[in-house]
Task: structure prediction
Amino acid sequence: MPTPDRTGALAAAAGFARAAAWAPDWRGAFLSALAREVEERRFFLWLPVAAIGGVALNLAADQEPSLWLPALLTALFAGLAWMSRARPVALGVSLSLAALFAGFLSMSLRTARVAAPVLDRIRIVTLQGFVEEVDLRTVGARMVIGVASADGMPREKVPRRVRVTMRKTPDVAAGDYVELKARLLPPSRAVLPGGYDFARDAFFAGVGAVGSTLGPIRTLPPPGDASLSQRFTAAIDQARNRLALRVNAIIGGDEGAIAAAMVTGKRDFLSTDAKDLIREAGIFHIITISGVQMTLVAGIFFVVTRRLLALSPTLALKYPIKKWAAVVAIAGSLLYDVATGSRVGTERALIMTMIVLGAVIMNRRALTMRNLAFAVLAVVAIEPEAILGVSFQLSFAAVAALVAVMEARIAAHDLDPDPFVPKRGEGPKRGTLAVRLVDRPLALLFATAFATLATASFMAYHFHDLSPYVLIGNPLTLTVIEFFAVPGALIGAALYPLGLDGPVWLYVGAGIKFILWVARFIADAPGSTLHLRAFAPYALPFLALGVMSAAIWRTWTFRLSAVPLALIGLIGATHGPRYDVIVAPSGDLAAVRDADGALEVVGKRFNAFAAEQWLSADGDGRDPAEARSPDAPCDRLGCVADLPEGESLSIVFDRLAFDEDCERAEIVVSALSAPPGCKAKFVLDETALARLGAVGLTWSDDKGFALASDRSALENRPWSPAPEPARDDRLVRPGLAASHGADPADPAIDPDADH
Result:
């Protein structure tokens, strides 16, 4: 007879056995999920992610990488992948590393392809060259010139292209050979550590200088004939401007400006207030020629062509009219891309559209995650720098979310009846009007919600704000674009040569007027805009990985990996830098946090763009003009602002102010070179800012100010070249070296080092 203790032990063992029988088989569930992911080849979809990682690593380098090493490593790991194709784990690791180094190599090759001189300093020069593009504005214009000659500059230092603005509308057009005098300066660098770098974007666009015209523009006989490509692009730009002017004149107001942007890609007629309005409503995409418009254009060409061909029974029954329609849609998409200026966002949408239509021609499923992966790889191969752009990130995140929702719905329909379709005998069947009125709107709302969630982190990172009502604005906007804007644009452009397009543009304008009404309604609603601070550097990569994990994996076992990735990203999104002092790389403007915790802009010359970037990154929704400090004393010598603990910041405009300010100020900022004996703790003068770029300083009671910079002191990339050596090469006082993470023995940091 068992003892009581033994009886209790046996009962406990039986209880554990029953619990184990009911407990899930975690190992079996994982292996089953892994088998499904392998069977559906979902691991392949991570190769574009690895390639994007290689591009990001290349752009993060502080000097131009060599070509031979990433090429060798790409070939090495590709060879290892081929040899280990019978071993799945080794194959996956080798392919991932091959994709990583291929992305790295693609970025280096792209840099070498577009390399061109960048202006070294501010210059006033007389230029001659062909006008490549003219963007007309309500007042003045902006144009891009392919430079043929620049007086007083060595040929090897002349930028290939410059972009200049003018206060009056010029009497020139794309294709003209002109001579003008201009004040040019290098493309501006980021005004905030980690902020938007216009200089990098300008470099990859071939623009080596920006500026403004001084005096009249003369049209001259060209020294030689323009190339065929120059004549072609000039003709396209002239046609775009003529059409944009006509559309804007017929519709008028911001509605006309938006219509012109939708039709031609010319966005310079739109007012700042209208831009802010549609951005706050979360529908800024309506004025960009990107995925939505390209998809609708291709769809219209495809459907119309197929329906017309189907009118003939002979063609419909004996010939592959679906493939013919896809070919016509590809041609129409190419024409639309060229006619709207072929911007980076449009080219990316074109690549995706052509891959989808190519799948139709090849008798493959069109809208799949694999096709999206091929589109990403194509972008990485052709324009890898686009991965840093908001257009690429938003578009691919939205498409990935939509494809994932579509795949999930298809899988659910294959396994279970449609939840929106009643069972037999319970009501209307699939395909009836009642079902379509319920099913399709709910499906649209569901897909829009997922696409909005997928793009929310990218929107917050780039624009520092979110619109909670985007689920209202986006479906309405897409509906109006589908029924008004894109069909109207195609019909209006076709009738424009005949002069019969006027009523069509009024039709388009009516739809856009409704969009703006919705945007104003959303913008006026309480809590319409949530202002957010800048993210920590690691936040966006983890949030992006979370989005991709949720979209790529097909099983919940693997899809749950998105949760920890998203949590790490959200932590980074709430722990971004919050600078108490920000110094512009120009050395004549700064922002200082006041006693109320808000940033105040200090400087004699107000820069609205810099102020807007600083306030946005601080989560401050004020108008930039409201942040201009009324109390900071300024005179012809400089400006002074108060800092914590009774210290001060001085912005020096005249060398005469250095003697006094170097003695009393903790931070001295200047576009001039400070004297070697300056005793301020932080000397951010011409030499220092040339090496560090924009500077942010954060105050703590125990450590004082800690410095962060937009670039390292050793950075030397084509779009951010190292400055010329200066006589006084000091950046800051020795005490700063530790907070900046630099070597105190570095002569670029230590003023006492032997130069």
